[in-house]
Amino acid sequence: xxxxxxxxxxxxxxxxxxxxxxxxxxxxxxxxxxxxxxxxxxxxxxxxxxxxxxxxxxxxxxxxxxxxxxxxxxxxxxxxxxxxxxxxxxxxxxxxxxxxxxxxxxxxxxxxxxxxxxxxxxxxxxxxxxxxxxxxxxxxxxxxxxxxxxxxxxxxxxxxxxxxxxxxxxxxxxxxxxxxxxxxxxxxxxxxxxxxxxxxxxxxxxxxxxxxxxxxxxxxxxxxxxxxxxxxxxxxxxxxxxxxxxxxxxxxxxxxxxxxxxxxxxxxxxxxxxxxxxxxxxxxxxxxxxxxxxxxxxxxxxxxxxxxxxxxxxxxxxxxxxxxxxxxxxxxxxxxxxxxxxxxxxxxxxxxxxxxxxxxxxxxxxxxxxxxxxxxxxxxxxxxxxxxxxxxxxxxxxxxxxxxxxxxxxxxxxxxxxxxxxxxxxxxxxxxxxxxxxxxxxxxxxxxxxxxxxxxxxxxxxxxxx
Amino acid sequence: xxxxxxxxxxxxxxxxxxxxxxxxxxxxxxxxxxxxxxxxxxxxxxxxxxxxxxxxxxxxxxxxxxxxxxxxxxxxxxxxxxxxxxxxxxxxxxxxxxxxxxxxxxxxxxxxxxxxxxxxxxxxxxxxxxxxxxxxxxxxxxxxxxxxxxxxxxxxxxxxxxxxxxxxxxxxxxxxxxxxxxxxxxxxxxxxxxxxxxxxxxxxxxxxxxxxxxxxxxxxxxxxxxxxxxxxxxxxxxxxxxxxxxxxxxxxxxxxxxxxxxxxxxxxxxxxx
Lengths: 466, 273
Prior knowledge:
The structure holds two protein chains of two kinds. Chain A is of the alpha/beta class.
């Protein structure tokens, strides 16, 4: 029946994913240096110069440029100074945060930090003052990464934070700390940070008007976890192999845009974007690919979801007690169950692209004249017993669903589905000309070998009279 | 061994003089060009609704083709009396059947190669993008499907007395395995205790060549999350190399058991006249 569908689409996923993987692999390698080899043997630490002494000697406003060597932590910075440590490393073995900032106007740049003790909110960097800058830090930690407490108007930029499993091997997710953890810290800017294998990549609580931009999080529990953060923007972040990409709770007026959350299906509860008790917020231009649930809305109302690309998820979009939301111009491709709703009335669904919809565009405006009502047969079958998921898109299931027409009014319906996808796929996914040519050549060779062999077989064995 | 080769060669020759083979060749070529056109409508790589539709189309046509050609070839032996003649020679049943299988397999694979080759060449000439990975997986999927159903066809051929009977059974098997499968299973599994459903379903799936080959390809195409959390471990496992090996093992086991059934039936027919 697929022949009759009108189908168009986006291009080249695998390559963007591949490149992202390579990139992440690169970061991973970079960060997985054994702590001992970089920071030296442990008995060496006794003789390391203390960074605290340097800080104590400095005058307010001074710039300290660290030499190319290791320093011992912990250090408390209580005056407005700038530390440039792009060649230096700070090793902290004490049960304290490697760096604690308690004065306004402090900047720390380029330092490598190894926080070797974990525990109750022990972090590589703890900030308890306003107007700070943390830039290009490379942190491995056995506790938290960067912790902000009542610290406003700071900038965290291009830092790399990774979990240091040390000699213990694998650590359970719950025992790890968060990558960046904010509480009661307003108007901060988090940009371009990379976070690997932590508990929550970025954890935001009770903080207003934040900018969370272009961060990358992989292998963590929640990529971005936020609670009570009104007026915040979450833009351009990406996450892979986390349990849930972005979990947004108890907020109003938040903008979640241009994020990409992919391949998060390892956990039965994993979602691309989870919105719980979210009001009047905008979720747009996000990419959620290969998750268990693409976008999940619960107890949320008055939100606008548009221009999202929802690909290959088990459930594309799921509403539970979510009313009066506006869902338009999204692309739904290859989701097993495209949309599922429970106790959710008044959601307006229109102008989305569904790859399995039968559409008919008579006047050429790109919008189908017939509604798309999602046949719930398969969803109901699967919810009665998940084992039947093996039948997904089996020819026989198409046949059966086609015969099931009961209570059509109650089906989730797109009033005016679009004929073609709304969003082009990101440019990074397209092939370069050279790759394209080599792939075509390879294809040509294989195809002609197949064709020639078959023709020769036919001529040799059948056509020739012996 | 030389008996086997002789039989295979004869089967190949007869196969390509058979108008059925050519009508299937034309049908499959037209069909593969349709696949190309369908694929042209989507730019989405990896698993998508279009891929699903293409898999379904292949699942409709190829098993039927294999079942007809295979079962007719064996019943033909009986009807035309060439087996009665061959049976008077010191020719073992095993080389005969294996030769038959090999010859027919080559005929069918040639038809598929022709179709896919044509599709590939045309797509390259027209500057059409068809991902190599998907193309090869589809080709392998088709080959696997055809070989498994060919073994099944030989069982049908051995059981049937004439072509009509073979055709009736073939259509029945095809309908059961491809179209009616979920309906029948859902109906039957409704009667068993809840906890038995999944293991039974998995076991039955392994028994249906159309289903397990399809699932393998779907997972390999990267549509693993479509099977949902219930089969998550399966998916990671199939996507690894171990999965391919086990699939190959299952595939061979399937072929061997089907062929040994044919052997038993045929041997019995030989000794009991």
